[in-house]
Amino acid sequence: MKVKKYIPDQSGLANSVGVTLDRFIKKKQDDFTFASGELSQLLRDIALAAKIVNRETNRAGLSRISGSFGHTNIQGEDQQKLDVIANIRFMRALSKGGEVCAIISEEDDEVVEFKNKSGKYVVAIDPLDGSSNIDVNVSIGTIFSIYRRVTPIGSQIRTEDIMQAGNTQVASGYIIYGSSTMLVYTTGRGVNGFTYEPSLGEFFLSHPDMKAPQNGEIYSINEGIYNQFDEGLKSYLQLCKSRKLCARYIGSLVADFHRNLLKGGIYIYPATSSLPNGKLRLLYEANALAFIAEQAGAVASNGTNRILDVMPTSLHQRTPLIIGSKKMVDEVLAINNKFSDQIL
């Protein structure tokens, strides 16, 4: 029998489509001495749910699944139909995968514990961020954090499994559903982005080793509530205007963060007079993006402390968030400190 050695194509007739998410995950699995494949499978489960949610969002107008669901979540926010659908999709994928023992979701009042007590991981998730943008075809997203449970495998979930600081995350990421759908994640060894190719049904590596610019020309904040900001933040915003920086605010956290991560910029949702603890949730929004930001060379703070060092005290705890290019965040914090000293 004659045997012919494989020689990669040199003709240029069939260009490589790139590295799939699945192949990339397998390649990187060796980075974790404690892992035996569960984390890799968990990331695949999230990618599968993301493909389904991507399909649902793309056909929302045709399927009559846009608009309000008629209920409010624990935050008192109106649930959109796609909020509920996305929550079901991720819950279903993660429960059937077998690697997760519990989920913290924006859409559920309490921790959802699975019957699978052998699961090693706890997932905190905002299934569909930016719900108010669904009906007007603006980018929305999913945000997730993955924690390793601290109590013995097989035992009942306890508070210490759930209330973990962001610096204990083993992975975090987001999916943005926009002009293209992207999954961006980190396992603590850099940040990589994958773009979904719908005709093949696969995520392909498109943004390897993502790095945030140290400075930027974009600031993202809801200036409609300017009068509720403290004097330090007002001073910083006036400085941005004097420098003719670009104000860009979509109102979808994932979309604003993604743009600033790629182009350089700062996103701010501060404490205000009406929301003294901020608006964004620590466990399933701020922590996940802070982990990605730091792995990409950016910074995330609540105005006084590093986000990842904050110990949560409640499931749906809110936090101010200042996140983005290092020089811009450092400048905001310096101005805040200056005004705080003047008050004292």
Pick out its properties:
D-Maltodextrin-Binding Protein, domain 2, fructose 1,6-bisphosphate 1-phosphatase activity, eight-stranded mixed β-sheet, alpha+beta, 32% helix, Fructose-1,6-Bisphosphatase, Chain A, domain 1, Fructose-1,6-bisphosphatase class 1
Structural account:
Substrate binds at residues 129-132, 222, 249, 279. By secondary structure, the protein is of the alpha+beta class. It folds into 2 domains: 21-207, Fructose-1,6-Bisphosphatase, Chain A, domain 1 (2-Layer Sandwich); 218-343, D-Maltodextrin-Binding Protein, domain 2 (3-Layer(aba) Sandwich). It contains 9 helices and 17 strands. An 8-stranded mixed sheet has the order 4-3-5-6-7-8-9-10, sandwiched between helices. It has a 5-stranded mixed sheet with strand order 12-11-13-17-15, with helices on both faces. Helix 6 (231-242) crosses helix 9. The longest helix has 21 residues, at 38-58.
In short:
By secondary structure, the chain is of the alpha+beta class.
Q: How many runs of DSSP E, i.e. beta strands? A: 17
The second-level CATH architecture of the largest domain is 2-Layer Sandwich
Largest sheet: 8 strands, mixed
Report strand %: 15-25%
The ordered H/E elements are HHHEEHEEEEHEEEEEHEHEEHEEEH
Q: What is the approximate shape?
A: globular
The CATH superfamily of the largest domain bears the name: Fructose-1,6-Bisphosphatase, subunit A, domain 1
GO biological process, one term: fructose 1,6-bisphosphate metabolic process
Protein name: Fructose-1,6-bisphosphatase class 1
Catalytic activity: beta-D-fructose 1,6-bisphosphate + H2O = beta-D-fructose 6-phosphate + phosphate
Subunit structure: Homotetramer.
